[in-house]
Prior knowledge:
Helices cover 31% and strands 27% of the residues. It has 226 residues and is α/β, with parallel strands linked by helices. Strand 2 and strand 3 form a beta hairpin. Bound molecules: cytidine-5'-triphosphate and calcium ion. Residues 78, 97, 99, 101, 103, 128, 130-132, 146-149, 161 line the site of cytidine-5'-triphosphate. Residues 78, 97, 99, 101, 103, 128, 130-132, 146-149, 161 line the site of cytidine-5'-triphosphate (CTP). In the N-terminal section; belongs to the HFCD (homo-oligomeric flavin containing Cys decarboxylase) superfamily. Its cofactor is Mg(2+); FMN.
Amino acid sequence: ELYLASRSMLLGKEVVVTAGGTVERFDPVRYLTNDSSGKMGFAIAEAARDLGAQVTLIAARTTAPTPGGVELVQVESAQQMLDAVLSRADSADVVVKAAAVADYRPIIRHETKLKKTGDTLIIEMEKTTDILAELGRRKNGQFLVGFAAETDRLEEHAMDKLQRKNCDLIVANDVTMEGAGFNVDTNAVSIFDRDGLVEALPVLGKRETADRLMRLVADRLAGSAK
Ligand code: CTP
Ligand code: CA
């Protein structure tokens, strides 16, 4: 019975998950990106699927295999991810922003390959739209889960992001910790809500971490429905 009950914790819910690292191009063959593997977001999509949700996974560059039974939307840049997320956010019950979105993008995207001329190269960048903050501003009933990758003052930075971006939960990890963060199969996250620390999870496989997170989300949804 326990199995059946957990299989339906998110039944009928629409969950949008973003994952991977965005790619910001500045000429036809060159781009800027980051170290995200996309594994955490993909694990979250699987966990939500297994709890009965209808899942859309909006993914930028990733090395993770595509999970079955979820709708995959492949994007490249922060702008494309923004468009994809906003077009689906209205009908979503939950949005989980696990993607590593570029904070800046090159202002100019050259039509032809840049030639090696000067001794230095300056690529001027401009800020991207903060997708999570935009979702927070437009929030109309969605349960918003953000991520925070930090190297110091974890709780302070996480709580600041939660408040600034109007999230319901923030999943924070200390990327300097062994077995946490980018390009590994494990993670050790602390989950915060408006009132502070909810749960500090130990080092776990990303799928186990994802299961715990999505069960917490399901509990919160059930609680607010009462
Ligand atoms: N995020 C986003 N759009 C951006 C930048 C970040 O949606 N343009 C989201 C991430 O997906 C994550 C959360 O915001 O869920 C926090 O990302 P993070 O990089 O930790 O925070 P920033 O606000 O970008 O601050 P900083 O990089 O300076 O720590
Ligand atoms: Ca950032």
